[in-house]
Structure to design on (63 residues):
């Protein structure tokens, strides 16, 4: 049952997608998904760096 649900979850975008016409369109600016992906990546880098800074501050030897 879990395998079927997982397979449907993975394949769902292909069922919802409209067929491609075969003609490439021009892009004048980034798509919203491109901006969202960049924002998620920037947040991830910031979050990991802040956690690592806090970890090394805590574990730093005391003089």
């Amino acid at each position: 049952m879990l395998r079927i649900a997982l397979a449907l979850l993975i394949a769902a975008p292909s069922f919802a997608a409209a067929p491609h016409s075969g003609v490439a369109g021009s892009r004048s600016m980034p798509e919203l998904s491109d901006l969202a992906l960049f924002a998620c990546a920037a947040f991830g880098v910031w979050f990991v760096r802040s956690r690592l800074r806090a970890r090394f501050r805590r574990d730093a030897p005391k003089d």
